[in-house]
Amino acid sequence: MIRASKNPVAQFLRDERGTASVEFVLVVPFMLYLFIMAFESGMLMIRNVMLERALDITMREIRVNILPNPTFAEVKAKICERAVVFSSCTSTLVVNMETVDMDTWIMPAGSIPCMNRPVPIKPPEELYKNPTDPNEVVIVRACIQAKIIVANTFGYLGRMLPHDAQGRYWLTSVSAFVNEPS
After folding, report:
1. Is Membrane included in the keywords of this UniProt record (predicted)?
2. Confidence of residue 125 (pLDDT cuts 50, 70, 90)
3. Domain annotation covers residue 52
4. For the chain, what is the domain count?
């Protein structure tokens, strides 16, 4: 014989209506977070690959003399022209060119100089001696700051990336070429 309990707490605990919504509420936010984090990581990789590609193609043009005697501004413009995924690339891209001493082979020290946006880019004379001198190895380092698409989605990964106080992370790329005599 089934007896109906008059205790409302016992009736509430036995009621099975709405159990699917509890599972939905517990699982969906976690799944959405994973989806957004995967999307953000994918965009980070696309941006990084585009910066690497743009720098490599520009350096290849310098090596095979498609860009004979380019200026610093031309190199930066060519990189930005090819890195199409960055908004305001010309104002956020930092290009650092340094020669390597062929006698000692001492590479440029320190990390890639990724400056904040408000800091003006140094003139080319301060970044490298003279990149048009023949028979010099020139290390070209590019850095750009990119905004996170959805704030606070990175969690642990976001704390591991180099970033500034505004939440922009830094993407860097390095390439080299040799100034050949003409």
Report:
1. yes
2. very low
3. yes
4. 1
Q: Which domain holds residue 56?
A: 19-179
Q: How far apart are the first and last CA of the chain?
A: 103
Buried b (16+ CB within 10 A) or exposed e, 55-84: bebbbebbeeeebeebebeebbbbbbebbe
Whether residue 159 is predicted with pLDDT greater than 70 in this model: the reply is no
166 located within any domain: yes
Find the mean pLDDT for residues 44-63: 92
Q: Tell me, what's the pLDDT at 46?
A: 94
Whole-angstrom distance, CA of residue 116 vs CA of residue 181? 36
Instruction: Identify which has the larger pLDDT, 116 or 86.
Output: 86
CA distances (Å), 162 to each of 39, 45, 49, 157, in order?
Answer: 19, 15, 17, 10
The answer to the question of residue 13 being in a domain is no
- Band (pLDDT 50/70/90 cuts) for residue 82 is very high
Nearest to 61 by CA among 177, 172, 173, 182: 177
CB atoms within 10 A of CB 132: 13
Q: Which residues contact 130 (CB under 8 A, 6 or more apart)?
A: 99
Q: What is the pTM of this model?
A: 0.73
